[in-house]
Each structure stands twice: as structure tokens, then as C-alpha cells.
Design a protein that fits this description.
alpha+beta; transferase; 267 residues; 7-stranded mixed sheet
């Protein structure tokens, strides 16, 4: 696979308007993505419009636009969650498919990308700081030294591309940092096959929901924190939208809400 395309042609259309590489670059910049940013991009592309090109060109153009905007001194991250150990499956770094949409599956297979070893919540990474994210050691999915923790310390950003109603897994990281009382640690164990085909047994803690009470932090709570504190920028993109926010100030604001008013937002 390659991301070397001619980017002048439109890749999708909506309401008789065409969108291509330059449009993607412009909207990313408008929501605050800059050169040098480490970004984690959650995607849901099917709402954007009618696809006009072959799948690899469509997907490759998104990757190319993201890289164009952040430049060479940055890191591009996408979630490639598998939930393998939760489903009592082997986690195979090279072969376990991502459950997070077609762009993430395309991205993780690019030759320059590497994938983290988390057997539940893995990420595909490439760019300047990729090795830092890959080699971080965390004992729980969203605990100290997890990918979101490192992204926050690097002043990274979350990008929601396509549908701003989805893609807020970062909330779980903040919930674990705060140690909310509606979640608890559960250990999952299984078999992992790494990128070099080495097979080994491992265990990881996951701060799971209590199933006997309301324990899902509502999307409305996330949007309240973002909007009330003026932390995000959003724009329409075809039939969907794009939203971005900085991790560190969002973590601070959400932590405060969870410590004082979490149960108001549980469903």
C-alpha cells in the first residue's frame, strides 16, 4: 500500500459539492491542527458523502492530508481496537483486524506504521515519536503510561473525523485517572503474537464498568465539558463534521466534573 496519490481529484461529494485533498487540509487547519502536533484520529467516514474514487485512493487521501497538516515532526495515531482478550481471542499484532472503521484498518497495514501491543485497545502509529508510544509500558489499558497518557503529556490532540457523536474513548482514560466509583479493575489474560511472530502469554488490567448500576458516561457529558469550557473546534465536512481538542485541558476539565458531578451524567 502507498499514500502516494495525485490529490487534485475529488474523493467524495455531498449536496453537489466535491471534496478533495486541499479541502481536507483546510478543514483540519480550521479546527486547530498544526504542524508538529501529535494527533489521535477517530474516524467514521460513511456520513461524509458519496465516494468518487477507489477505496485505496479515498483512504490514502485522508492519511496524506493528515500528514500534510501535521508535518514530519509529529505523530499520527489511529485506534485499532480489537478487544481480543475480552473475547478470549489471540491478539495478533499484524493480523488481528481493527474494529474501528475502514480508515484505521487501511492505516495499520501501511508499511511505515507500527501497532502497539495492548490486546484490547491497540493503536497504529507512525511519525517522529512513534517509538515512544510503542515502547511505553502500561499495566492497564488506560492507566499511567498508556498511549493516551503519553499523548496528553506531549500536548497532543484528539481529532473526531466524520461523526462527532462517536470516538471519545479518551474519556475512559480520565475516568481511570480519577478512579471513578462506577468502574473497577478486571484482569484479562491471553496470547499475543507480536510483529516478529513471537508468541507469548500476557495479562492486562481494564477499568471496566459496573454492570449493576448506571456506569456509562453519557456523550452529552463529554460535549458539555468541551462546549462549556470552549475546548473544541468543530466544522462541517460534507454530510458529517470534524471536531478537535487538546488533550491536557480537556483532561483537567473532565476530571473536575467527574470528581464532583459524575453521576449526573451516567446512563
Amino acid at each position: 500500500m502507498s499514500t502516494d496519490f495525485t490529490y487534485t481529484e475529488p474523493i467524495f461529494s455531498f449536496d453537489n459539492q466535491n471534496f478533495g485533498f486541499n479541502d481536507l487540509c483546510c478543514v483540519l487547519q480550521e479546527v486547530g491542527i498544526n504542524a508538529g502536533d501529535d494527533i489521535c484520529v477517530h474516524t467514521s467516514l460513511m456520513r461524509l458523502g458519496k465516494i468518487l474514487v477507489k477505496p485505496n485512493i479515498f483512504l490514502g487521501t485522508f492519511v496524506a492530508a493528515l500528514r500534510e497538516v501535521i508535518g514530519p515532526d509529529a505523530t499520527l495515531i489511529m485506534p485499532t481496537f480489537t478487544y481480543s482478550y475480552c473475547k478470549q481471542q489471540v491478539y495478533d499484532v499484524r493480523n488481528s483486524p481493527s474494529t474501528m472503521g475502514i480508515l484505521t484498518e487501511y492505516y495499520r497495514k501501511l508499511p511505515e506504521c507500527q501497532r502497539t501491543l495492548d490486546p484490547i485497545f491497540s493503536f497504529a502509529v507512525s511519525g517522529k515519536h512513534a517509538d515512544d508510544y510503542l515502547h511505553a509500558k502500561a499495566t492497564s489499558c488506560f492507566g499511567s503510561n498508556c498511549l493516551y497518557d503519553l499523548l496528553t503529556k506531549r500536548n497532543g490532540k484528539i481529532v473526531i473525523l466524520g461523526d462527532k457523536r462517536t470516538g471519545y474513548t479518551y474519556d475512559h482514560y480520565v475516568e481511570e485517572c480519577v478512579q471513578v466509583d462506577y468502574r473497577y479493575y478486571k484482569t484479562f489474560s491471553g496470547t499475543t503474537i507480536d510483529a516478529n511472530d513471537n508468541e507469548f502469554q500476557s495479562s492486562i488490567n481494564y477499568y471496566v464498568r459496573c454492570l449493576d448500576r448506571p456506569s456509562t458516561f453519557a456523550l452529552s457529558g463529554t460535549h458539555y465539558v468541551l462546549e462549556h469550557n470552549h475546548l473544541s473546534k468543530a466544522m462541517s465536512l460534507g454530510g458529517g463534521e470534524i471536531l478537535a481538542f487538546e488533550c491536557a485541558p480537556f483532561k483537567e476539565a473532565l476530571s473536575e466534573l467527574l470528581q464532583h458531578d459524575a453521576h449526573r451524567w451516567l446512563i
